[in-house]
Amino acid sequence: MDSQLSAGPPAIDVAPAQPEYIELRSSDGTTYLSSPIYPDPLYRGGASGQVLNPVDELPAWWAESGMPGTSTEQTVVVAGHNYSKRDAPFKALRVVEPGDTVVLRTPSGTLDYAVESVGPLPKGSFLADNELRKSVPGRLILANCDVQGGEPTDDNFVVVAQLVR
Questions:
Q1: Maximum Cα–Cα distance across the chain
Q2: Which CATH superfamily is domain 21-163 in?
């Protein structure tokens, strides 16, 4: 897959702004996800208020999280779908490994994040009070509904990355 974001020197200062585009790159620089981000922010839904459900296949930035930028003090969250019967960009989360790179483009500039950890988290617990909900400067979390072997699971799959300065 070709990258849609040009590589360049690390940004010295990128003002916080809503993300427009996301890419995932392996440690050797190969791009394996390249997608626009839904233009409207994502809000909680469901009867319990504990569901993040993007309106279509595109990943979406969660409005209660921080906006990506070099000075952002809050954790940034982007959620997307992973369907069992059709493709969506965030199906790629299952192949992310520590050491891979997440690239976010905003109107203010481009930010690189280094993947630190990946793994499942029981559905409903992501929005509950847990370590991932803490505000951590420069932290980015990607999340989807987990699918394994073509079947949905009872988990979300979560990627945790840290801003590279």
A1: 45
A2: Sortase (2.40.260.10)
